[in-house]
Design goal:
This protein is α/β, with parallel strands linked by helices. The chain has 2 domains: 234 residues, Glycogen Phosphorylase B (Rossmann fold, 3-Layer(aba) Sandwich), CATH 3.40.50.2000; 176 residues, Rossmann fold (3-Layer(aba) Sandwich). The protein contains 14 helices and 15 strands. The strands form 3 sheets. A 7-stranded parallel β-sheet has the order 4-2-1-6-7-8-9, sandwiched between helices. Helix 8 links the parallel strand 11 and strand 12.
């Protein structure tokens, strides 16, 4: 039984796929269980790197209403998959667009989003607004609607804003403008949510007027429903190492693949037992590395898969691997790995993501560019596999990242701000 309505503002939403939509999808799925009925305001964008319409299945038995801003062409949506650009072109594109548009190129979407938001609010009794970013234009949409209709709003940082290493500022003025935008937003919002303690500390350090209680940590998570009733075939004859998701921005499998090649050279018999699996899109330059290190024969590239299929591959694996090159981002895939209850090799600098992985007691963390240490970690896991003693995260550790539990935390925050 619903007691309150919440307007959810999220530019990225299914049928768009990839990691950027997962957190929002699961919040929307579980909010009705805690008395909140979501009204989703999203885009009608039909061009993206990947689509996954199966994600909408989460709402089959829910009373979820999804409102999409109109596209420029009033034609039937035709989903077009964009080619994943190489990192250099992607970087140049960001520099150009972020030099023109603030806080991001999606600012062009703000007008139509606000207009649709006004219509939703006028036709429904909205008790609170929830906006998730990036894109940070989502926050500005929420702020404008909140001010016009005197509705409390809450913002959800999936990534940090001003301190994001992949935000480019052409001049000091550009950065100053972003800081003022974020500062003004934080003065107006009723609560800010971040995914980890490091992100919270960045906000508190930069904006001294923010109190400790103004920023709440709700981490990424996994959905137990995604791991039930899945038929999978784990082959015990092979030691399968799997990576799931994009190698976004400066993330690169080069040092890992070099370490695998080195491991095989030092352990020739392992080539008949070792298998690599990459789930999702992979840049051409990264695929060429497989040839460079002579790993094509032991590697499977699945291409983009729907979420259920991706989970199936995780369950069929013996070791899950991810790489993070900075301490600012919080990849959601790590928490999906926890849900799969598999050992983890995390190649990341000493920071929050590595710390969380190691807390599972089933992970080894190494520097992302240290080939020798990566090889050593692979060797350790391989030897444990031969002895059938690979570690698993403790169930009580994994449970703290249950999406339903995390959504309950969000519902509590929405209730608090709606009663102010």
């Amino acid at each position: 039984m619903f007691s309150r309505n919440v307007l959810v503002i999220a530019y990225y939403f299914p049928p768009m796929g990839l990691s950027g939509v997962q957190r929002t999808v699961k919040f929307v799925k579980y909010l009705p269980d805690f008395g909140w009925k979501p009204f989703v305001l999203t885009s009608s964008s039909n061009k993206y790197f990947a689509f996954d319409e199966s994600l909408l299945d989460d709402f089959n038995d829910k009373s979820i209403q999804i409102f999409r801003t109109k596209s420029k062409k009033n034609t039937k949506p035709n989903l077009k998959v964009q080619k994943f650009p190489n990192y250099t072109l992607q970087k140049i594109g960001r520099i150009l667009t972020q030099s023109i548009y603030q806080p991001d190129r999606f600012i062009k979407w703000k007008k139509s989003a606000v207009e649709l938001g006004e219509k939703i609010i006028q036709e429904n009794k909205i008790a609170a607004i929830f906006a998730t970013a990036p894109p940070f234009t989502d926050f500005l949409v929420a702020q404008e609607l909140s001010e016009k209709y005197n509705i409390p709003f809450l913002i959800d940082y999936r990534d940090v804003w001003v301190d994001n290493p992949f935000h480019y500022y052409l001049t000091p003025f550009h950065k100053s403008y972003s800081i003022k935008l974020e500062e003004n937003l934080l003065k107006k919002t009723n609560k800010a949510i971040v995914t980890n303690r490091f992100s919270k500390e960045l906000i508190l350090k930069r904006y001294r007027f923010i109190s400790h209680d103004d920023v709440v940590i709700i981490p990424h998570g996994y959905d137990p429903d995604d791991f039930v009733n899945i038929e999978f075939n784990h082959n015990p004859d092979f030691f399968t190492i799997t990576h799931s998701g994009l190698f976004q921005d400066d993330r690169n499998p080069k040092f890992f693949l070099k370490a695998v090649s080195q491991f095989i050279k030092n352990n020739p018999s392992s080539v008949d037992k070792l298998r690599l699996r990459f789930i999702g899109l992979m840049r051409n330059s990264h695929q060429k590395l497989l040839k460079k290190y002579n790993l094509q024969k032991i590697t499977t590239l699945t291409g983009n898969l729907n979420h259920k299929e991706a989970v199936k591959h995780l369950l069929e694996s013996d070791l899950l691997w991810l790489v993070v090159n900075d301490i600012y981002r919080s990849p959601g895939k790590l928490f999906e790995y926890f849900g799969a209850s598999k050992p983890i090799l995390i190649c990341a600098p000493d920071g929050i993501m590595r710390k969380i992985a190691l807390e599972s007691k089933a992970a080894i963390g190494v520097d992302p560019k240290d080939v020798n240490e990566i090889e050593k970690a692979i060797s350790t896991f391989y030897n444990l596999w031969t002895k059938k003693t690979l570690p698993k995260p403790a169930p009580e550790f994994v449970e703290q990242f249950n999406r339903k539990k995390l959504t309950q935390d969000l519902a509590k925050e929405l209730t608090l701000i709606s009663e102010l």
